[in-house]
Specification:
By secondary structure, the protein is α+β, with helices and mostly antiparallel strands. It has seven helices and 15 strands. It folds into two domains: about 190 residues, Fructose-1,6-Bisphosphatase, subunit A, domain 1 (Fructose-1,6-Bisphosphatase, Chain A, domain 1), CATH 3.30.540.10; about 120 residues, D-Maltodextrin-Binding Protein, domain 2, CATH 3.40.190.80. It binds 2,5-anhydro-1,6-di-O-phosphono-D-glucitol (AHG) and manganese (II) ion (MN) (2 copies). The site of one manganese (II) ion has 6 residues, from strand 5.
């Protein structure tokens, strides 16, 4: 029976039996993410009031300046998951190497590894614009009871067991999939409860929004330049409108609701693109596909790429199916 005020907690319990290997472990993991999301949300909401905006003074392995909230969000997710003995390993944008969850031997019996971008769009923090968290979950491939290895993290995106994001926006939402469609939950901040507000989210097959950092135009490959011109020309439903927040989570969330394409192509300056395959593109690609959209690197399905390293970058095109197909046509033609 469906009702309008279903909470995330109730939804998790009701759907537990639909998981392939249902032992309650994945449900507990999603519950821990729900808790960490509320803590980070509380921090993000206070950003202008306490001294947590601005740079933390360190750079991460990608050479990017860490913001204080990057560090806070990273620590919140890691400590929430570690204290609950809920995963056997964690990889994060903000950590050079993956983390093995130590403790009693029992701990290594956990089946799941989690990869995350703890705070996405961090250049938006200081200006009060939406940011997010992205997460990706796999079953480990090495035997339970042993420490995790890099192989547990370098799995192709199609093997993800679950993926999702939290958007700290005008309202805070948690959107996730376990491979049975995409559902979105909105936080009622007064009582700290997520409610199912966006059941079975679906990308419109075609939309009228294109999202790309056009400041990089001169550095883009010819196919991308031609596709952008196509978006701007008059034609059926065109010119499209241009919307770019600079936070992958927010840009894709909007395009999923309204219909559109998001692109972060490679450029002559960043020959592999900017976005990270494991904790940005793969989880968003699973969500996009589960919502009826398409995600590719311009030529190949993102979820079929075999990762070679933890912080690997990849060009990213995702969104409404027919729009991404069109962009791929331009890529292969030019
Ligand atoms: P992060 O804050 O985790 O480093 O990610 C920022 C990413 C992504 O969210 C966004 O779409 C993109 O970087 C924006 O990059 P540009 O500023 O180069 O457009
Ligand atoms: Mn990011
Ligand atoms: Mn980040």
């Amino acid at each position: 029976m469906s009702r309008k005020n279903k909470t995330l907690g109730e939804f998790i319990i009701e759907n537990q039996t639909s998981f392939q290997y249902s032992s309650g472990e994945l449900s507990r993991l999603i519950n821990s993410i729900r808790l960490a999301a509320k803590v980070v949300n509380h921090q993000v909401n206070k950003a202008g009031l306490v001294d947590i905006t601005g740079a933390a003074g360190e750079t991460n392995i990608q050479g990017e300046a860490q913001q204080k909230l990057d560090v806070i969000a990273n620590e919140t997710f890691i400590s929430t998951l570690t204290h609950r003995n809920i995963v056997c390993g964690i990889a994060s944008e903000e950590n050079d190497d993956f983390i093995t969850i130590e403790g009693q031997a029992e701990d290594h019996k956990n089946k799941y590894v989690l990869l995350m971008d703890p705070l996405d769009g961090s250049s938006n923090i200081d200006v009060n614009v939406s940011v997010g968290t992205i997460f990706s979950i796999y079953r480990r491939v090495t035997p339970a009871g042993t420490p995790v290895t890099l192989d547990d993290f370098l799995q192709p995106g199609r093997d993800q067991v679950a993926a999702g994001y939290i958007i700290y926006g005008t309202s805070t939402m948690l959107v996730y999939t376990t491979g049975h469609g995409v559902n979105g939950f909105t936080l009622n901040p007064a009582i700290g409860t997520f409610y199912l507000s966006h059941p079975r989210m679906q990308f419109p097959e075609v939309g009228s929004i294109y999202s790309v950092n056009e400041g990089n135009y001169v550095h883009f490959p010819a196919g991308v330049k031609k596709y952008i011109k196509y978006c701007q020309e008059e034609g059926e439903g065109r010119p499209y409108t241009s919307r770019y927040i600079g936070s992958l989570v927010s840009d894709i969330h909007r395009n999923m609701i309204k219909g559109g394409i998001y692109m972060y192509p490679k450029s002559s300056q960043a020959t592999k693109g900017k976005l990270r395959l494991l904790y940005e593109c793969n989880p968003m690609a699973l969500i996009v596909e589960q919502a009826g959209g398409k995600a590719s690197d311009g030529f190949t399905r993102i979820l079929d790429i075999k990762p070679r390293e933890l912080h690997e970058r990849v060009p990213f095109f995702c969104g409404s199916k027919l729009m991404v197909k069109k962009a791929e046509e331009f890529m292969s033609q030019y």
